[in-house]
Amino acid sequence: MRKIEAKRIKKKVKELFLRANYHIGEDVLTALKEAREREVSEVGCSVLDMLIENYKIASGEEIAICQDTGLAVLYVELGQEVYIIGGNFREAVNEGVKEAYMEGYLRKSIVDDPVFARKNTGTNTPAIIYTDIVPGDKIKFMVTPKGFGSENMSALAMMKPADGPEGIKNFVVDTIKKAGPNPCPPTIVGVGIGGTADKALVIAKKALFRKIGEHHQNERYAQMEKEILERINNLGIGPAGLGGRTTALAVNIEYTPTHIAGMPVAVNVCCHAARHAEGIL
Amino acid sequence: MAKTVKIVTPLTDEVVSNLKAGDMVSITGYIYTGRDAAHKRLFSLLQKGEKLPLEIRNQIIYYVGPAPAKPGYACGSAGPTTSYRMDPYTPALLDKGLKGMIGKGLRSKEVIESMKKNNAVYFHAVGGAAALIAKSIKKSEVVAYEDLGAEAIHLYYVEDFPVIVVIDSAGNNFYETEPPKYAK
Predict the structure, then answer these.
(1) B126 and A240: CB-CB below 8 Å?
(2) Residue B149: per-residue pLDDT
(3) Is the Cβ of A57 closer than 8 Å to some Cβ of chain B?
(4) Which of A21, A205, B1, B152 could form a disulfide bond with B148, CB atoms 3.0-4.6 angstroms apart?
């Protein structure tokens, strides 16, 4: 057994959310710069210039990239040989989120009751935590402050197996077409295929962590990613939805086994500010 | 690139009528902020025939819930939120003389019809360019609904606030006219 103090978990979670909210990944910056070179729309170019400038300002001054500093979502791989001491895991994670948002000048966006009171919890907690128990004695954190402009454009289809790859491609492209300018294009499109309704959505969001430019290891899925991306960029929605050739920077598919009677397909959209960070304890 | 049109608030009917979809605009003057919760409260006051806590005639409302300001900053990161959530409340505000809205994303048919009827304009600010946009916000104070925190109605003084006219007062919609030009 390896002992890990709860306060170290808190500290790591805090550090990761601060980093994710201030510093965009190099892969996003590179993808935006490349898109800027290719973009033919004048307005599109000026939008991309503003985004690149925005990332420089946010990182240089350590201020939030976007005012919507998101709902805190964590994917955690907890080694089964880890023994947490001096507190409990869930509280430590939430304390880390709270400290990041309270001390890091990040917006608190969580309401307690989604329907009636809608009272802000004031701490940006509770976080949403997906935990996998894995072999080993480490804890791996993958965190994302998920903004809701893009989250609101998510979609789920319980497709028939007969719908096949064409059905999946059409559904994803239609979802992005309908979303138009709303999710802050250029977006990263996460697609989860298989499992149950809920599992498809969970892996669609997890797919957003993949580095831009990397494709699925399975060649058939990689090919589907490339085809969907091309079709999305052919929609002409463009940067900020004001017209252009850059509507998405990446399409990332993850799949998981499913039931003989089904083919769930989930789409989770992320704005260009694809904020995420990873760390290991 | 088309040249940037400089405008000041409060708006006049003439200024609004002259703004066309696709114009790059830089705004200087006072603008109000408001998003979901504040709009809901303003709307319910109007429904009850009561007075609003601010004079919106000829003004602009920016759909934003800013991040907290770091010490030494006038305002935290402050990019636009998605506008369609304000659609149910918007025609009533336009009827009261609101002349401009700043946000991002699609609007309902009802909002666009009301903009045409009331001669109003919808500006697009670039979503996710929040740290950059905040540089043009020079002063910020809460003027109503302080209990709503980031969702409270703020009064901003802005200088050269960068937007683009996306739906003009004639109903021309840049979100609809532009993408087909780049589609394949």
Answers:
(1) yes
(2) 85
(3) yes
(4) B152
